[in-house]
Amino acid sequence: MTNHFLGLCVICFALSQAACSSAPEKNYSITRYKDLAMTWMARGDRKRQEQRLDQAVTNYKTAYKYANLRNDMKLMGLSLLKLAAVYLDKKEFTVVEEYIQRVQTMQRFESVDLTLSIKAIQAKKAHLVGDNLTATAYANELVNRYPEDIEKSIYYRWLAVKYAAIPVDLVALDKDVQSLQALKRSAKLENIEIFSFIIYQNALWRVNSQDAHAVDATKSAIEHFSELELTNRIRDCYKLLAKYYTSMGDDQSAQYFEQRIESLTILP
User: Fold this and answer.
1) DSSP string, 243-260
2) How far apart are CA 96 and CA 53, in angstroms?
3) How far is CA 146 from CA 57, 68, 116, 151, 152, in A?
């Protein structure tokens, strides 16, 4: 009788321990590798924006490693395409094609679709090799694929203008800048890099056309890049101001901004 009672106690204890082993919410999804992949991808984005390209490559490769450990095909593909974007900046086009082909192979055998992201890379590549007709066609196609996405439709529309090297409608550009600024102020902006592209191009186009609002547009861009602590982009904007004042014959102002450029040349 005693042995029987002890046996029941052991069984009850085992069952109670098993019951305690499950989390109350029964969430069995582990995101450790995903979190690491996203963290390293964000670090790669930062280094790419700073034009610290070798560091960006290392970070994106680390992101790919963790995405692969999780078997997250979308993150793997995005990591490879971000690597392709870095090698575009390096102008190593053979390497770019290798990464594009790896993603296309993944698409063939896995349930992942990154066709539009691939076309964005191909558009930039075409532009860099001087095939602006193809680059513009890709950009216009991407505009049509994102009719409901304000940020992406704005981005690809003005990317197409850049690639086609056609006259800029500054009134339309101003409206798009204001739309993105409104999204940023309301914390609804999804992609800060799109805003960075537009606000810099706004300054660049206005300086090149000696527009009356060129200085205000460039100072707005400086304020934006200062908030992001992107010293290289702040320097680019000061170059625009120096260029503008030189074209206006204001040597004193141009000299001041040349000094600001020099002070930002040596990065930490």
Assistant:
1) HHHHHTT-HHHHHHHHHH
2) 14
3) 29, 29, 10, 9, 6
Q: DSSP string of 101-127?
A: HHHHHHHHHSS---HHHHHHHHHHHHH
For range 246-252, the mean pLDDT: 97
Q: What's the CA dihedral at 183, 184, 185, 188 to 10 degrees? A: 60
Please state which of the ranges 8-22, 112-126, 195-209 shows the lowest mean pLDDT: 8-22
Q: 6 versus 102: which is more confidently predicted? A: 102
Confidence class for position 267, pLDDT limits 50, 70, 90: low
pTM, whole model, 2 decimals? 0.86
pLDDT tens-place string over residues 160-173: 999 999 999 999 99
Q: Are 234 and 225 spatial neighbours (Cβ–Cβ below 8 Å)?
A: yes
Distance CA 192, CA 194 (A): 5
CA distance 112 to 142: 18
Orientation angle between helical segments 93-109 and 115-128, nearest 10 degrees:
160
